[in-house]
Here is the input.
Amino acid sequence: MEKKSPFDIFFDIFVVVGTTIIIVLFFILVVKILGFETVVKAKIGGVPLESLKYRGAKLHWESGNPIPKERLEIFYTVMDSLSSDVNEKYSLENNPTDFFYLTAEEYYWGDLTYGHGFEADAFQRGTEVFLSPTLVDSTNNTVLFSLEQFRYGPWKRFDDNQAYNDGHFAMVLIHEYVHVVQFNHSDYLNSYATDVGWQGDNKPDEDEKFYSVLSSYSLENPSEDMSETFMYSYLCGNNLEALSEVRLQYIDDFWGVPREQYCQNFH
Ligand SMILES: [Zn+2]
Here is the structure.
Protein backbone atom coordinates (compact mmCIF):
# COMPACT_ATOMS: atom_id res chain seq x y z
CA MET A 1 0.00 0.00 0.00
CA GLU A 2 1.20 3.44 -0.87
CA LYS A 3 2.12 5.64 2.06
CA LYS A 4 0.05 8.81 2.18
CA SER A 5 1.93 12.03 1.74
CA PRO A 6 1.36 14.88 4.25
CA PHE A 7 -0.56 16.62 1.51
CA ASP A 8 -2.97 13.68 1.12
CA ILE A 9 -3.58 13.60 4.87
CA PHE A 10 -4.19 17.33 4.86
CA PHE A 11 -6.57 16.89 1.93
CA ASP A 12 -8.48 14.08 3.74
CA ILE A 13 -8.89 16.28 6.82
CA PHE A 14 -9.97 19.14 4.59
CA VAL A 15 -12.68 16.96 2.98
CA VAL A 16 -13.94 15.68 6.34
CA VAL A 17 -14.07 19.16 7.89
CA GLY A 18 -15.62 20.65 4.76
CA THR A 19 -18.32 17.97 4.60
CA THR A 20 -19.12 18.44 8.28
CA ILE A 21 -19.51 22.19 7.80
CA ILE A 22 -21.80 21.67 4.80
CA ILE A 23 -23.98 19.18 6.74
CA VAL A 24 -24.22 21.55 9.73
CA LEU A 25 -25.10 24.49 7.46
CA PHE A 26 -27.72 22.34 5.75
CA PHE A 27 -29.36 21.50 9.08
CA ILE A 28 -29.32 25.15 10.14
CA LEU A 29 -31.00 26.00 6.84
CA VAL A 30 -33.66 23.31 7.34
CA VAL A 31 -34.32 24.54 10.87
CA LYS A 32 -34.62 28.10 9.57
CA ILE A 33 -37.00 27.12 6.78
CA LEU A 34 -39.20 25.08 9.11
CA GLY A 35 -39.13 27.90 11.62
CA PHE A 36 -38.11 25.73 14.56
CA GLU A 37 -35.57 26.94 17.00
CA THR A 38 -34.14 25.32 20.05
CA VAL A 39 -36.10 25.33 23.26
CA VAL A 40 -34.85 28.01 25.60
CA LYS A 41 -35.28 27.95 29.36
CA ALA A 42 -35.77 31.15 31.32
CA LYS A 43 -37.52 32.44 34.39
CA ILE A 44 -40.21 35.01 33.79
CA GLY A 45 -41.94 36.51 36.79
CA GLY A 46 -40.31 33.84 38.95
CA VAL A 47 -41.88 31.04 36.90
CA PRO A 48 -39.49 28.59 35.20
CA LEU A 49 -40.54 28.58 31.57
CA GLU A 50 -39.40 26.88 28.43
CA SER A 51 -40.01 28.50 25.12
CA LEU A 52 -39.58 28.04 21.42
CA LYS A 53 -39.77 30.44 18.56
CA TYR A 54 -41.89 29.67 15.55
CA ARG A 55 -42.14 32.32 12.84
CA GLY A 56 -43.19 35.55 14.61
CA ALA A 57 -44.51 33.70 17.63
CA LYS A 58 -42.81 32.76 20.83
CA LEU A 59 -44.53 29.97 22.72
CA HIS A 60 -43.84 29.66 26.44
CA TRP A 61 -44.85 26.87 28.80
CA GLU A 62 -43.93 25.86 32.31
CA SER A 63 -41.13 23.32 32.53
CA GLY A 64 -42.66 19.87 32.54
CA ASN A 65 -46.02 21.03 31.18
CA PRO A 66 -45.74 21.29 27.40
CA ILE A 67 -48.71 21.75 25.08
CA PRO A 68 -50.08 18.34 24.00
CA LYS A 69 -48.57 17.34 20.67
CA GLU A 70 -51.83 17.38 18.68
CA ARG A 71 -52.63 20.89 19.88
CA LEU A 72 -49.10 22.02 19.08
CA GLU A 73 -49.65 20.97 15.46
CA ILE A 74 -52.79 23.14 15.35
CA PHE A 75 -50.81 25.98 16.90
CA TYR A 76 -48.16 25.74 14.17
CA THR A 77 -50.79 25.69 11.43
CA VAL A 78 -52.48 28.79 12.84
CA MET A 79 -49.12 30.57 13.11
CA ASP A 80 -48.40 29.61 9.48
CA SER A 81 -51.72 31.17 8.45
CA LEU A 82 -51.08 34.32 10.44
CA SER A 83 -47.64 34.61 8.85
CA SER A 84 -48.39 33.80 5.23
CA ASP A 85 -52.08 34.45 4.65
CA VAL A 86 -52.64 37.73 6.48
CA ASN A 87 -52.21 41.18 4.91
CA GLU A 88 -48.50 41.90 5.49
CA LYS A 89 -49.04 44.86 7.79
CA TYR A 90 -51.09 42.72 10.16
CA SER A 91 -49.07 39.52 9.72
CA LEU A 92 -47.37 37.69 12.56
CA GLU A 93 -43.93 38.71 11.28
CA ASN A 94 -44.86 42.35 11.76
CA ASN A 95 -46.79 41.76 14.98
CA PRO A 96 -44.60 39.38 17.00
CA THR A 97 -46.59 37.73 19.74
CA ASP A 98 -45.73 35.84 22.93
CA PHE A 99 -48.07 32.97 23.74
CA PHE A 100 -48.13 31.56 27.27
CA TYR A 101 -49.60 28.17 27.98
CA LEU A 102 -49.88 27.83 31.74
CA THR A 103 -51.00 25.31 34.33
CA ALA A 104 -54.25 26.00 36.16
CA GLU A 105 -52.36 27.25 39.21
CA GLU A 106 -50.33 29.75 37.21
CA TYR A 107 -53.13 30.77 34.87
CA TYR A 108 -55.82 31.37 37.44
CA TRP A 109 -53.77 32.48 40.44
CA GLY A 110 -50.21 33.08 39.31
CA ASP A 111 -48.07 36.19 39.19
CA LEU A 112 -47.69 36.08 35.42
CA THR A 113 -51.37 36.67 34.76
CA TYR A 114 -52.02 38.86 37.83
CA GLY A 115 -55.05 36.61 38.34
CA HIS A 116 -56.42 38.19 35.21
CA GLY A 117 -57.56 34.94 33.66
CA PHE A 118 -60.38 34.07 36.04
CA GLU A 119 -63.26 33.64 33.63
CA ALA A 120 -61.57 33.86 30.26
CA ASP A 121 -60.33 30.80 28.37
CA ALA A 122 -57.65 33.04 26.96
CA PHE A 123 -56.80 36.70 27.10
CA GLN A 124 -54.42 39.21 25.58
CA ARG A 125 -52.25 41.77 27.32
CA GLY A 126 -50.14 44.00 25.10
CA THR A 127 -48.32 41.68 22.74
CA GLU A 128 -48.84 38.68 25.01
CA VAL A 129 -51.56 36.05 24.78
CA PHE A 130 -52.35 33.75 27.70
CA LEU A 131 -53.92 30.34 27.07
CA SER A 132 -55.77 28.55 29.85
CA PRO A 133 -55.46 24.82 30.51
CA THR A 134 -59.21 24.57 29.96
CA LEU A 135 -58.76 25.82 26.41
CA VAL A 136 -55.68 23.80 25.50
CA ASP A 137 -56.05 20.58 27.41
CA SER A 138 -59.59 20.34 28.73
CA THR A 139 -59.70 16.54 28.46
CA ASN A 140 -56.70 16.17 30.76
CA ASN A 141 -57.73 14.74 34.12
CA THR A 142 -55.01 16.59 35.98
CA VAL A 143 -56.33 19.86 34.65
CA LEU A 144 -59.86 18.91 35.63
CA PHE A 145 -58.71 17.85 39.06
CA SER A 146 -56.82 21.06 39.79
CA LEU A 147 -59.82 23.06 38.72
CA GLU A 148 -62.15 20.99 40.85
CA GLN A 149 -59.97 21.79 43.82
CA PHE A 150 -60.75 25.45 43.43
CA ARG A 151 -64.40 25.12 42.59
CA TYR A 152 -65.49 27.20 45.53
CA GLY A 153 -63.63 30.22 44.23
CA PRO A 154 -65.18 33.16 42.38
CA TRP A 155 -64.38 31.57 39.03
CA LYS A 156 -66.67 29.71 36.75
CA ARG A 157 -67.15 26.08 37.63
CA PHE A 158 -65.68 23.78 35.04
CA ASP A 159 -68.18 21.92 32.93
CA ASP A 160 -67.05 18.42 31.90
CA ASN A 161 -68.82 18.74 28.57
CA GLN A 162 -66.87 21.82 27.75
CA ALA A 163 -63.90 20.05 26.17
CA TYR A 164 -62.87 22.30 23.34
CA ASN A 165 -62.21 20.92 19.90
CA ASP A 166 -59.36 21.87 17.59
CA GLY A 167 -61.51 24.31 15.64
CA HIS A 168 -62.43 26.24 18.76
CA PHE A 169 -58.80 26.26 19.91
CA ALA A 170 -57.68 27.61 16.52
CA MET A 171 -60.37 30.30 16.50
CA VAL A 172 -59.39 31.48 19.98
CA LEU A 173 -55.77 31.84 18.81
CA ILE A 174 -56.96 34.02 15.92
CA HIS A 175 -59.28 36.02 18.20
CA GLU A 176 -56.54 36.86 20.71
CA TYR A 177 -53.99 37.56 17.98
CA VAL A 178 -56.39 40.12 16.46
CA HIS A 179 -56.35 41.87 19.86
CA VAL A 180 -52.55 42.07 19.56
CA VAL A 181 -52.94 43.63 16.10
CA GLN A 182 -55.40 46.13 17.59
CA PHE A 183 -52.86 46.92 20.30
CA ASN A 184 -50.22 47.67 17.63
CA HIS A 185 -52.58 49.42 15.20
CA SER A 186 -55.25 51.35 17.06
CA ASP A 187 -56.07 53.23 13.85
CA TYR A 188 -57.11 49.93 12.28
CA LEU A 189 -59.50 49.20 15.15
CA ASN A 190 -60.86 52.75 15.04
CA SER A 191 -61.65 52.63 11.35
CA TYR A 192 -63.24 49.18 11.76
CA ALA A 193 -65.41 50.47 14.61
CA THR A 194 -66.55 53.55 12.70
CA ASP A 195 -67.17 51.68 9.47
CA VAL A 196 -69.29 48.92 10.99
CA GLY A 197 -71.40 51.48 12.86
CA TRP A 198 -70.08 51.79 16.41
CA GLN A 199 -70.65 55.18 18.00
CA GLY A 200 -67.60 55.30 20.18
CA ASP A 201 -68.14 52.32 22.46
CA ASN A 202 -71.89 52.60 22.06
CA LYS A 203 -74.23 50.69 19.83
CA PRO A 204 -76.54 52.51 17.44
CA ASP A 205 -80.26 52.25 18.29
CA GLU A 206 -81.51 51.12 14.96
CA ASP A 207 -79.13 49.79 12.39
CA GLU A 208 -79.91 46.39 10.97
CA LYS A 209 -76.50 46.08 9.35
CA PHE A 210 -74.70 46.86 12.58
CA TYR A 211 -76.49 44.00 14.34
CA SER A 212 -75.61 41.54 11.56
CA VAL A 213 -72.99 39.62 13.56
CA LEU A 214 -72.29 35.96 14.26
CA SER A 215 -72.09 36.10 18.05
CA SER A 216 -73.61 38.22 20.79
CA TYR A 217 -70.08 38.69 22.13
CA SER A 218 -69.34 40.77 19.01
CA LEU A 219 -71.67 43.42 20.39
CA GLU A 220 -69.65 43.70 23.62
CA ASN A 221 -67.41 46.43 22.21
CA PRO A 222 -65.58 47.31 18.95
CA SER A 223 -62.47 45.25 19.67
CA GLU A 224 -64.46 42.08 20.45
CA ASP A 225 -66.54 42.73 17.34
CA MET A 226 -63.39 42.80 15.20
CA SER A 227 -61.78 39.77 16.86
CA GLU A 228 -64.95 37.71 16.56
CA THR A 229 -65.50 38.69 12.92
CA PHE A 230 -61.97 37.76 11.81
CA MET A 231 -61.95 34.62 13.94
CA TYR A 232 -65.10 33.11 12.43
CA SER A 233 -63.74 33.42 8.91
CA TYR A 234 -60.86 31.08 9.77
CA LEU A 235 -62.94 27.89 9.79
CA CYS A 236 -64.21 26.96 6.33
CA GLY A 237 -67.36 25.48 7.83
CA ASN A 238 -68.51 28.75 9.36
CA ASN A 239 -71.20 30.40 7.28
CA LEU A 240 -70.45 34.12 7.06
CA GLU A 241 -73.60 35.05 5.15
CA ALA A 242 -75.21 36.67 8.18
CA LEU A 243 -72.38 39.19 8.50
CA SER A 244 -72.83 42.75 7.32
CA GLU A 245 -71.17 43.72 4.04
CA VAL A 246 -68.64 46.02 5.74
CA ARG A 247 -67.52 43.27 8.09
CA LEU A 248 -67.06 40.92 5.12
CA GLN A 249 -64.92 43.56 3.43
CA TYR A 250 -62.77 43.87 6.54
CA ILE A 251 -62.32 40.10 6.58
CA ASP A 252 -61.05 40.26 3.00
CA ASP A 253 -58.75 43.11 3.94
CA PHE A 254 -57.28 41.36 6.98
CA TRP A 255 -56.61 38.10 5.21
CA GLY A 256 -54.45 38.84 2.19
CA VAL A 257 -55.61 35.79 0.23
CA PRO A 258 -59.04 34.43 -0.78
CA ARG A 259 -60.88 32.56 1.96
CA GLU A 260 -60.59 29.14 0.33
CA GLN A 261 -56.79 29.52 0.58
CA TYR A 262 -56.55 30.28 4.28
CA CYS A 263 -59.60 28.68 5.88
CA GLN A 264 -59.14 25.40 7.75
CA ASN A 265 -61.24 22.33 8.36
CA PHE A 266 -60.31 21.57 11.95
CA HIS A 267 -62.81 19.58 13.99
ZN1 LIG B 1 -61.55 39.17 22.99
Summary: The first helix runs from residue 6 to 34. The pocket of zinc ion is lined by residues 175, 179, 224, 227 (CB under 6 Å). Confidence is low (pLDDT under 50) at residues 151-157. The two ends are 67 Å apart (CA to CA).
